[in-house]
């Protein structure tokens, strides 16, 4: 989301090379393997509009399903940033999935055919007439590009949602990673990958209960990060070229119970427990858990 002083928003139009030609969207695109999401939005913005930008905040995280022209269903997890222009000159993308870039006034936005997530971000009612082209959108995993072998790690990219969960007494909820998984034996935030068709919030609620037996309420978005490990070892020692994009929420568990793992045996979580901040500071913590606890003091 990039706005000018008069309130206009910078939008790009889908080209014939993309899935939705003629439809307008916020600038952006897919995260390359191993790339931080922050770097992705800066790179994609420059490619599609000619402008260099600076991130000023994370607006929201969401997901949607789309029926593509070949009748397949695509799940997309999206991170929406606020950015401001720091340089460059407005231009159209020469070869790519967009063919126009324009500053669109608030009065003109609703007259454009918009992708649903863009319409929602701009406060424009989604026009069901857009579905007349045979496309269906609904609000709402793991993505392997090849089967892994000992000689060639499988490239894996995962989008996950995690909870910095606390109770009314200020205790912190953590999970211990099972042996045989990356980070085995370390204490981690509850959470995990989004399933097909899930929003990040739905995935987090499911993972929180499966890993800790707790139910909580999301009270804020802490931030977005990633981890790239091209030589990770998965279950049974299978090599993985591993890239995970992670969204961390603050979650309040108003009525805590004894933490216990409810998912089937053999999963990635060995145990779950509540800790005081002092106790948590003495644990072997994953980088994600350390960062979340550090941000909260």
TrEMBL record:
<comment type="similarity">
    <text>Belongs to the Nudix hydrolase family.</text>
</comment>
<dbReference type="InterPro" id="IPR015797">
    <property type="entry name" value="NUDIX_hydrolase-like_dom_sf"/>
</dbReference>
<protein>
    <submittedName>
        <fullName>ADP-ribose pyrophosphatase YjhB (NUDIX family)</fullName>
    </submittedName>
</protein>
<dbReference type="InterPro" id="IPR020084">
    <property type="entry name" value="NUDIX_hydrolase_CS"/>
</dbReference>
<feature type="domain" description="Nudix hydrolase">
    <location>
        <begin position="1"/>
        <end position="130"/>
    </location>
</feature>
<dbReference type="GO" id="GO:0016787">
    <property type="term" value="F:hydrolase activity"/>
</dbReference>
<dbReference type="InterPro" id="IPR020476">
    <property type="entry name" value="Nudix_hydrolase"/>
</dbReference>
<keyword id="KW-0378">Hydrolase</keyword>
<feature type="domain" description="Nudix hydrolase">
    <location>
        <begin position="154"/>
        <end position="297"/>
    </location>
</feature>
<dbReference type="InterPro" id="IPR000086">
    <property type="entry name" value="NUDIX_hydrolase_dom"/>
</dbReference>
<dbReference type="Pfam" id="PF00293">
    <property type="entry name" value="NUDIX"/>
</dbReference>
